[in-house]
């Protein structure tokens, strides 16, 4: 029997009022690999990620997480596939998410931020939570900063705390929504390095990014969205190599980043 993918999305439709933002997306995220979602601003990348994490509810289509179908309210799959909220919550607990804005609690130290998630979400006793939090901070190279507040940390360090916080909850899928967009180039590099190591450890990752160099070197699969549609999908060499899809060419002209210049 073939292994179920970590994430499977079929014919996903998301509308905001009259605006159809995702018009029937199919996506498979294989286990233990990095899938990168790229595309112009407003193409629907974040919305797709947020639908997969159930931060937004899609209008139609199907999402499966680890083979568990989480259905939607209308369309071909119908109401019958919709799971009760508690079960959705259970499936969601396998997913860790990191956002563009780090979303740390400002009144808590780095250690406090990571430990608090374990206490509130997992019900772990504070002492055990702090031990685990310390180990996670060490994994992202921040043990020396554990006692610092977010305002005392660089943006790159804050994002690494946010990654440690997500990883502390022991997810088997990590979603990243433009995790380096608000960082300058040097700090971007340190966050991408942490993500690269996570990828090497075999974590299943779905990453929305404008860092084409990262996508090309770490991604197993690149998915290019434009105007809410999947235009191209394939290995980095297929998507970025020549001859290239015309819309990829246009996109690269606009978004080509430092890493990409040497890679492509
Ligand atoms: N909560 C919302 N309400 C209404 N429209 C929304 C909402 N969220 C997103 N949109 C619209 O959906 C479209 C896709 O937005 P989305 O953020 O998914 O794009 P994106 O590809 O991630 O863009 P970027 O690279 O700029 O982050 C945009 O037109 C946006 O204005």
UniProtKB/TrEMBL annotation:
This protein's GO CC annotations: plasma membrane
PROSITE patterns found in the cross-reference section: ABC_TRANSPORTER_1, ABC_TRANSPORTER_2
Cell compartments where the protein resides: Cell membrane
UniProt keyword annotations, A-Z: Amino-acid transport, ATP-binding, Cell membrane, Membrane, Nucleotide-binding, Transport
Family membership noted in the UniProt record: Belongs to the ABC transporter superfamily.
GO MF term list: ABC-type amino acid transporter activity; ATP binding; ATP hydrolysis activity
Name this polypeptide is given: Phosphate ABC transporter ATP-binding protein
Naturally occurring in which organism (per UniProt): Hoeflea olei
